[in-house]
């Protein structure tokens, strides 16, 4: 198929477009600072807290205060939020950076050490020191009952919002990271952390430099149905090249219980630049509708023994990014994404427990003779064995 070549005003990169799927190739050397994808916001630490029973909603705020004052020891800590996405993406062979806030505290030290060990570029901060009062690392307490069910308790639920103080603009070093990314990934939690205009500026800066924006509203979409939060949701949906949602989230956002209709609705919104809408269907697999092709694709799920679903959606998203920015076929992209999500489900917890490439390859190899899965395996192998031009960006 003929590739159409277009050039932006940025001489360091050339962008190739095939059926409106974008493939970006850096022409600079390894010290240029380019990365495949930048995660925007929601950089937090999960702290695992065993409980006999989950607290009532009215009891959660008091529990949060108590846990914050006396948190469990480090053996209960794990990186969370967008760290799940970043680790999964790095394990797929993508070069990864982040923009957000990691506090100058013991939690931040732990978080940074984990991300560096996973070959993820050092975080580019967006929050200033405020008369010596620096923002602290955000913590989410993960409550786990004897049956391994989960509930969450964090400042994301209680505010005051935005959680990160003093952010009125984006520092130049963070803007530069956005300009040097092929993709930006963010989720609905970012609106709990920083103001809408800052999120909008970040996305527009990336778009102007040729990056694709990926947005997963996540469970926070249930809190974004009116007022300024509805405006925030609508704004980021309109700026996104790729939108990812679960079936339940798609119903909340679009009003359609049929995932096919929900995906079509998202692509037909006036003024939207969205090219792909991806609906995650759990055990049933996934659906992707393409604006350029005017059709939807479904890919069945991969049967596995599920241990834990935490982090599956974040892991899934990393494969969607890989496929989109490299111009892979939609069936192969969905096959890989399903395999990555399934591989994560076979372990317990997220963070460093998300899918590794060996497990993903094992799952894809079981589909010998099936085209999309063979293609997905080939793309994965090529990605993880390509020269890593950006393993430690400062």
From TrEMBL:
InterPro entries the record matches: PfkB_dom, Ribokinase-like
Positions of the Carbohydrate kinase PfkB domain: 79-352
Gene3D superfamilies according to UniProt: 3.40.1190.20
Name the record gives this protein: Carbohydrate kinase PfkB domain-containing protein
Species whose genome carries this gene: Chlamydomonas eustigma
